[in-house]
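can u pls check wat happens w/ magnesium ion
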Amino acid sequence: MPRDWSELFILAEGAPAMGSDERDGGGEAGRRGLFRRLRENMSKTRQALSAEVHATLFEDLDDETWERLEEALIMADVGAATTAKIVSALEQEATSGALVGGQALTGRLIELMADIARPAEGTIDLRAEPTVIMVAGVNGTGKTTTIGKLAWHLREQAGRTVLVGAADTFRAAAVEQLEEWAKRSGAEFVRGPENTDPGAVAFEAVKRGRELGVDVVIIDTAGRLHTQDDLMAELAKVKRVIAKQLPDAPHETLLTVDATTGQNGLRQAQMFSQTVPVDGIVLTKLDGTAKGGIALAIAGELGIPVKMIGIGEALEDLRPFDADDFARALVGAE
Ligand SMILES: Nc1nc2c(ncn2[C@@H]2O[C@H](COP(=O)(O)OP(=O)(O)OP(=O)(O)O)[C@@H](O)[C@H]2O)c(=O)[nH]1
Ligand SMILES: [Mg+2]
């Protein structure tokens, strides 16, 4: 599971040279700093969960312990099925005497959560030239913002050149917003005439990306159409059109899920992944929610890895998802 950008991005030349962002730099001190920030970002979820962990695992164990723990995890949006899996495993190990004491139980709880949060490798392969990344998601979940942040990190952390294509053509404001992010992140930008077909813009963006020789092309898509069926049909079409320009593309389809919407995010991920194969989730707005456990529900129930997390509205507020750190930050471990 990627712990930093150099592990998230797979490059033809091997590990990338680190960019200038010290906070993302390697080394133990850098890692501790990042973990501290993650804990702060997730303080709402953590406060809710760590109090319950202390009130249960550090006291005498009985049926109520496990019920209370289950309730706490469900409140944090870990999801009923995934919660049941975690708690029954923990209960079994505790009852068999394999685990004794609050510390050991908490440590094991974190391990169980991290294992579930890590259903697959979770890397992003950037070896295709250009690599085409399509970003999908319900309106307002953070597609455009994530694209801006990702474009910036691709440049800063991996030295990649990036082009972004505005295939969300239904709102003029959406195109301008993406253009603004392209400027901020130093990416090339492709738009179509007003009300153009989104597929045509995606096609043009990939074509232009190839002509310019950029490393990565990122395609923004619409989050809202007249009906959900229209939205899904449009997304499938954009994907098909991209493949016409470049046979293996899109190489990566990312789905943005707004962590504050809790279980709704799980349903969205289900719906999108039935339309286009989703390679990874970007879990956004983790900074403002007590429902961070949704990462576990999505990974546990759909088997789709969370690859990145959004922890704010600025360019640098995107991080690779580290399942171990995430589980530790959720439960409140140091
Ligand atoms: N706090 C916080 N806000 C975020 C994050 N990601 C996105 N946002 C905010 O969420 C709002 C919606 O983000 P957009 O990027 O416009 O979402 P979108 O999916 O492109 O929306 P549509 O284009 O309408 O489909 C904006 O105000 C963003 O600043 C995040 O990680 N944390
Ligand atoms: Mg948008």
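Residues 228-245 form the longest helix (18 residues).
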